[in-house]
Design goal:
alpha/beta; globular
Length: 332
Amino acid sequence: MLHALSRFGRRRAFQAGAAAAVVLGLLVWWVLPLGKPEPSGTLTFSTGVRSGVYERYGQRLEGALGKDMPKVSIRLRTSEGSQQNIERVATGKADFTIATADAVATYLRSGRPGGERLRGCVRLYDDYIQLVVPRDSDIRQVSDLRDKRVGVGQKGSGVLLVADRLMAAAGIDPGRDITPVEAGIDTMPQRLADGRLDAFFWSGGLPTGALEDLSERFAVRLVPLEDALISRLQAAGGSTRHYRSAVIPADAYHDAQQGQAVRTVAVANLLITTDRTDPLMTEAFTRTVIDSRDRIGREVHAAQLVDLRTAIYTDPLQLHEGARRYYRSAKP
């Protein structure tokens, strides 16, 4: 009888212990997160001029980020372009942005605040330099801009940087030999159509919507950049090493090009952040940029050119640790 009671007590004790283990397991499941941790918090993404490729890309990317990072609140800020974008990220006014490699290199070489903290995430698509004039203009090359009213981009843009360099390579002093008009792609097309500009420079992905719209309602053409000019630009060294010879395909702007390809200069765009940004956030952001390429590319053509095989090359910046983690996980 005592033996039976002893067995009964052991059974009850075992059952009680098992029940306690189940309860403890449920508590652990409730308290501790399971699976891969997700980024959370807020981030600011500095884009570009209204109606430019940076802004259009940023708007589409915001939607993709919202789906992939539901715990992150995303704020977009328009800007004047690459130079302002870099300054914002370097000084903590924004978390991520897009900027051209030459503008990044210039920022680093100038020793401006926060440059040492900048990091790369993705080599995106190339910007093409586009010099736009009325179709009946007498401007046939960059040196013909002398004494003309020229749109050179806004003060904080990458357009201004490369426009000044191109004119200097052509023997033109941008401060004395032309009438420079600091304006963005949101206003330069209409100024040209209204006769308030003789020409304007633009640096952007192909095609840029504002320029495409202009070409469909006003007769314009693209001025080619001659080989000698490109060679002088590249020979200057420093940040100009990021420029390369390129061709704007004949079908980029059907009405403006009349079936003719146009020689020009291209420069890579980089997605950048700083070493202050959480690696988990940067890894997730990088993943979304790559994964959303085709979806965004249906609306912003330049996004289709993001390539996993070259995305890792963010010269002149070293890769952010979070981006490095993504590329390691994405290796075939």
